[in-house]
Design goal:
With 759 residues, this protein is mostly beta strands. It has 4 domains: 208 residues, Immunoglobulin-like (Sandwich); 115 residues, no CATH class; 195 residues, no CATH class; 130 residues. The chain has 1 helix and 43 strands. It has a 24-stranded antiparallel β-barrel. Strands 1, 3, 6, 7, 8, 9, 12, 13 and 14 form a 9-stranded mixed beta sheet that branches. A 5-stranded antiparallel beta sheet has the order 2-4-5-11-10, with no helix packed on it. The chain is globular and about 75 Å long.
Length: 759
């Protein structure tokens, strides 16, 4: 590699030559801006080394291919950007290299020094790559002006998966003329066809948040084309490279010490500290071929380092849904997704072991997962709610496959089976499709058959005797019954520059169950219609104005009308402080527990805004008349949500939020419920790897505080050290006068060292 002084001289010569070329253009000439749809770029192999340090003076960039005709895709409609952006692409045997030069006023750049995946609302650049070119899934790599990474996996079924992680390199620096970014993505981290020469769908994007959140891209987009990925550009010329192969071992050592009141209901009981406990977790991933990966884990550490955000469930009769954060489920997560939540990975609750096979070829995707779950959650869906039980050990198997047909069309299937150790099973077989009918019109759907074999041990359902479903054909209690069920969803969707509409039919039969999915209610048929029309003013305060209508009708299988729901709303985007403003009016009626509730309505107002890099906020207010399900009454309900995103300086984030709800009986004025949940997250990034985080949460409904401090040192996406604790405080009634006292009810200290070995 040449000395730094030579590299700097070479780059200076390039800048001088560029200036000479510009100077020969006639003084009065004006370049006509033309957006380029589906651009093409030929990429050549670099002849010199590239160091990912945020400087672009390596000779390896000298012959890189260049993209500079960026367009403003949002809020402008393929207009010329206010500032210039350039992207450079090259590769070697091991890496795809991308660099950006983003010209701007450095004082106006917005950036946060934070953990990977944690920045939103920053200036950033992005590389999007569809290696198979069929618009079914794609990689997304984002980098902010401090070099902080964010990666996601986009799929045509579920959109963007924010929990997806890969190992790659990035660096950036702010300069006198803006900022610049370097990216290196190892081919070993990617999946792509095993061919001598690659042809990939790619786009380069720049996010520039100011008064509006502006997006510039290399590829121009037609807002009357529903397929986002289909409109990307193409890069050709990458040759003689191979996707990831080899062995990865993810090891973790976890130690913890817990303590709790011997009787959680008695504050005067002894606080008992358990012995220090520790265990080893081991996982491995092996690339059987360029298209097939096998992953297995024994005694996996599926603990979470941050408690789930509490949800208001005071008027909810269904089991709550929480996002998946466990690393084992990231590889191939897109393959297992369907329109129904036919595989909800958190139902694999506490596996003793698990293994997964994931494969991708040019046309086919395949995924298989097997696990022994030691603490099995069992959900019984009913017409107006669900019952969640624990049924001990079970064996889980899930097989998913799909095939791409042409560009942006897909058909697939999923099979799942859960066998309970004490007897009983739940299985489903389903097919699904997503068919492109035109540029703006799509038809997708999923069709499922289920079979349930109940356990013959009623101890798990003690207290549910006498409850029935499916017009009294079956009992809720476990008594060894066996039955089939089915579920369907079918949609016609139109998305275009102005007029959007969706028409959806779905049903879930009374006897349908999915033991590894999330379908918490049954016995319903529903028809839904949505339509919206987008106005795009070119001047004035409003960037976009969208009046919308949403109609829904639902019946049970006996023909009883369960719900009429009508929604009319107006959403707007402003050219001021990145502000979104909207209001809605909803009205309808509902039948609940055999009681008909008419004249239900509520009004909703919301505003989301980010006036500056240091302050952002969201406010949502609702008021109306709704069904109080447990009181079986109509209530006057008020709810509010307020959240702030505060950044006193670029390394400190403070994110408080408050959710409040109250309902009073329409006739008597009696208070049916009242409470709030508040949560604040403090994050300080001492360096790119070292961070401190504190979460403080109070749930007024159960009068409980959760306080979770955490120290993190991160070497890479998967190699990380955690040291933290959790404290749970509850309000107890004590003393002769029923005073309340806040006391520690449980506590845990933990340390976790996780390291990824790549062989």
């Amino acid at each position: 590699m040449l000395p730094y002084s030579y590299r700097k001289t070479a780059r200076s010569l390039l800048i001088v030559l560029t200036g000479i070329l510009i100077s020969v253009v006639p003084a009065g000439a004006k370049r006509t801006f033309e957006p380029v749809f589906n651009p093409n770029m030929f990429v050549s192999k670099t002849q010199a080394a590239i160091s990912i340090d945020g400087n672009l003076d390596d000779l390896g960039w000298a012959n890189a291919s260049r993209a500079d005709n960026f367009v403003e895709r949002s809020p402008g409609d393929m207009t010329e950007p206010e500032v210039k952006t350039e992207a450079f692409v090259t590769y070697d045997e091991d890496h795809l290299y991308v660099a950006f030069l983003c010209y701007d006023d450095p004082a106006a750049i917005r950036a946060t020094m934070c953990q990977r995946d944690q920045f939103y609302g920053d200036d950033a650049v992005a590389v999007f790559v569809d290696t198979y070119g069929d618009a079914s899934w794609a990689y997304e790599f984002f980098v902010n002006p401090y070099g902080v990474q964010r990666d996601q996996l986009w799929t045509s079924v579920a959109g963007e998966d924010h929990g997806f992680d890969l190992i790659w390199q990035s660096a950036a620096q702010v300069t006198d003329s803006g900022y610049q970014v370097e990216i290196a993505v190892p081919f070993a981290s990617m999946r792509f066809p095993n061919k001598d020469t690659q042809s990939w769908k790619v786009d380069f994007r720049r996010d520039r948040p100011r008064e509006s959140f502006k997006q510039y891209s290399w590829a121009a987009y037609d807002r009357n084309e529903q397929c986002w990925v289909c409109q990307w550009g193409t890069i050709d010329g990458i040759s003689n490279v191979r996707p990831g192969k080899g062995l990865e071992i993810l090891s973790a050592v976890v130690g913890n010490q817990t303590g709790a009141l011997a009787d959680r209901n008695d504050p005067d009981s002894e606080f008992k500290n358990e012995k220090v406990d520790g265990e080893l977790s081991l996982g491995g991933k092996y690339s059987l071929s360029s298209d097939m990966t096998l992953e297995a884990t024994v005694n996996p550490d599926f603990s979470q380092i941050e408690a789930d955000a509490a949800q208001v469930d005071v008027n909810t009769t269904i089991a709550l849904f929480y996002p998946e954060r466990r690393p084992f489920f990231q590889e191939g997560a897109d393959i297992f997704r369907t329109l129904f939540n036919s595989f909800y990975t958190r139902t694999v609750n506490d596996p003793k072991y698990a293994a997964k096979l994931v494969g991708r070829t040019e046309k086919y995707n395949i995924g298989f997962l097997t696990a022994l779950d030691e603490n099995t959650p069992y959900m019984i869906p009913l017409e107006e709610g669900s019952i969640l039980l624990n049924t001990g050990e079970s064996y889980v198997n899930v097989l998913r496959g799909s095939r791409s047909i042409g560009e942006d069309n897909r058909v697939g299937f999923i099979l799942s089976d859960r066998r309970l150790d004490g007897g009983g099973s739940g299985s489903i077989a389903a097919v699904d499709h997503d068919i492109r009918l035109s540029n703006t019109l799509r038809f997708d759907g999923q069709y499922i058959l289920s079979h349930t074999g109940e356990p013959d041990d009623g101890s798990a359902t003690e207290g549910l005797e006498g409850m029935t479903f499916d017009s009294d054909r079956h009992t809720v209690a476990f008594d060894g019954e066996s039955y089939f069920g089915d579920a369907v969803i079918a949609r016609i969707r139109r998305n275009a520059r102005h007029l959007d509409f969706h028409l959806t039919y779905d049903h879930v039969s009374p006897s349908y169950r999915t033991e590894v999915g999330y379908d918490p209610v049954s016995n319903g048929r529903r028809v839904q219609f949505y339509s919206g029309y987008s106005f795009w003013p070119t001047t004035g305060l409003f960037e976009r104005i969208v009046p919308q209508m949403y109609l829904s009708r639902k019946w049970n299988y006996d023909g009883t009308r369960k719900e009429i729901f009508n929604n009319f709303n107006l959403n707007t985007d402003l050219r001021f402080a990145q502000t979104n403003l909207g209001m809605a009016y909803n009205f309808g009626e509902q039948t609940w527990s055999g009681v008909e509730f008419e004249d239900l309505w509520h009004v909703d107002f919301y505003v989301h805004s980010r006036p500056s890099d240091a302050v952002g906020f969201s406010l949502d207010l609702e008021y109306g008349k709704s069904v109080a399900r447990f009181a079986l009454a109509k209530g006057n309900e008020t709810s509010a949500f307020l959240a702030f995103d505060l950044k006193p300086f670029d390394r400190l984030l403070i994110e408080p939020n408050l959710r409040y709800t109250r309902s009073t009986h329409e006739d008597t004025g009696e208070e049916l419920w009242k409470g709030y949940i508040t949560r604040t997250r403090f994050s300080y990034q001492a360096s790119k790897g070292l961070s401190v985080r504190l979460v403080v949460q109070y749930n007024d409904f159960n009068e409980r505080w959760d306080i979770d401090p955490l120290l993190t040192y991160r070497l890479s996406s998967f190699s990380v050290f955690y040291l933290g604790s959790t404290y749970d405080y509850s309000n107890y009634i004590v003393g002769p006068n029923d005073q309340t006292d806040l006391r520690l009810s449980s506590r845990q200290f933990f340390a976790k060292l996780q390291y990824l070995f790549q062989i």
